[in-house]
Amino acid sequence: MFQRDIAQHWQVTYQQNGYPHVQQGWVLPPERKDEFDPFILMAEDWFKRGTFSDHPHRGFQTITYVMDGRLEHIDNHGGHSILDAGDVQYMNAGWAARHAEEAVDDDLIHTLQLWLNLPKRLKETTTSYQNVLLEEAPIVPFDGGQVRVYSGDIAGVTGPLDSLVPITMSEIALAPGATYTHVLPTNHNAFMYVLAGEIEAGASKTRLAKTMAATLTFDEQASGDSGLELTAVSRTKILIYSGQPIREETIAYGPFVMNTEDEIRQAYRDYHDGKFGPPAVL
Fold this sequence. Notes:
- The chain is mainly beta.
- It has 2 helices and 27 strands.
- The protein has a 7-stranded antiparallel sheet with strand order 2-23-20-25-18-15-14, with no helix packed on it.
- Strand 21 and strand 22 (about 205-210) form a beta hairpin.
- This is Pirin domain protein.
- InterPro entries: Pirin, Pirin_C_dom, Pirin_N_dom, RmlC-like_jellyroll, RmlC_Cupin_sf.
């Protein structure tokens, strides 16, 4: 089995934005999107109500993991839901999404939002949403910890999140000293983010602590599975995501992710011409 290692790692830094978007950090910086293919960016946000009111999207997918607080989702097709800590929402923006993501009441919401690219052939698909509640994601225990599977075939179970492109998403918790081998498709580009504690990861046993992110080595031309060795230095919780690279030219501008600048301009024209539909409000 191909043994994964840490390719690059970094400490996430944060900026204080004030009210209502209190604090933000880039777990996956958007200017490095080509390294993360099929992922575009991941933002970690703390915000109050009024930060992410009605806005459009086109050409990609989002996966929003709620760290703390209550996240209210509203879209202009009548969708409405409230998610709590550990819950995940998947959105396929496809051709024309228009929605709002807000804190409930006076909550300070803390989220991780991952942008996942769509290949050109899927950029005009129908907008859709899927909620995965904490209790709906299967848990596989192991000696000294557990893995909760949100998406993909991991540890003998299948996560309920149904992305248009194949990905995996897992949350792994380990007790101090516990060791676990996380198995992923060898041809998937993958990254991890440390939510709590400190861990030794990969063949190099690279130490990663809370608020550190890392990309993993992979073999895009290979088939079969690969293993990532993890050993907890202290009580640790991490997220690991993986997906097969799309390898298409991608332009991300504002709320749109397309393949050409002309397509970005068309997205803005369509939005201003009302083709995304009415605002997303209660």
